[in-house]
Amino acid sequence: MGEFIESIQRIIALVERRQGIGDDTALNGIRLLCRHIENFALQQTISSFEGRWGSWTPYQDCGSEYLQSFSLRVERPQGGGDDTAANNIEFRCTNGKLLFGGGMSWGDWGSWSGQCSNGICGIMTKVEKPQGGVDDTALNNVQFRCCEE
C-alpha cells in the first residue's frame, strides 16, 4: 500500500447461499479495504485466493476505527454429507463494534483470535479448488496479519 500508515476498516464476504438440492460451499472469500489513517481517499482492497461461488455481501465498516480480532464459524466434516468448512466470519473493531460476514449458520464459532493493537493489515486464506462433480468446500481457513507496532 505504499509508504504510509494503513489500517483496515471495512470487510466484504463472498457467500454462496443454501443450495437446497446441490452442493453448498458457504463462505468462499473475504476482502478487506485498507485506508490511509489520515486520508481516507487513499485506499486499496486486499484479498487472498477466493472460491468461485456466491455473491459479495455489502461492505461493513468500523467507522473511524479498525479491525482488531476475528472469529471463524466452521462446520466439521459431514462424512457422507455435504461439507462446507468455513461458513461465516465475525470481526471485532477497536471501538467494540462487531461486523458479521453474512455467511451461513452451520457449524460452530471458533475462539476469538488474539487482538491486533494496531489493526489487521494482511490476509491469507486456505481455499479448496473445485473438485469437479464431488463435494466442494471453498474457503477452509483464514489467517490475518497484524499491522506492525
UniProtKB/TrEMBL annotation:
<dbReference type="Pfam" id="PF03762">
    <property type="entry name" value="VOMI"/>
</dbReference>
<dbReference type="InterPro" id="IPR036706">
    <property type="entry name" value="VOMI_sf"/>
</dbReference>
<protein>
    <submittedName>
        <fullName>Vitelline membrane outer layer protein 1-like</fullName>
    </submittedName>
</protein>
<dbReference type="GO" id="GO:0005615">
    <property type="term" value="C:extracellular space"/>
</dbReference>
<dbReference type="InterPro" id="IPR005515">
    <property type="entry name" value="VOMI"/>
</dbReference>
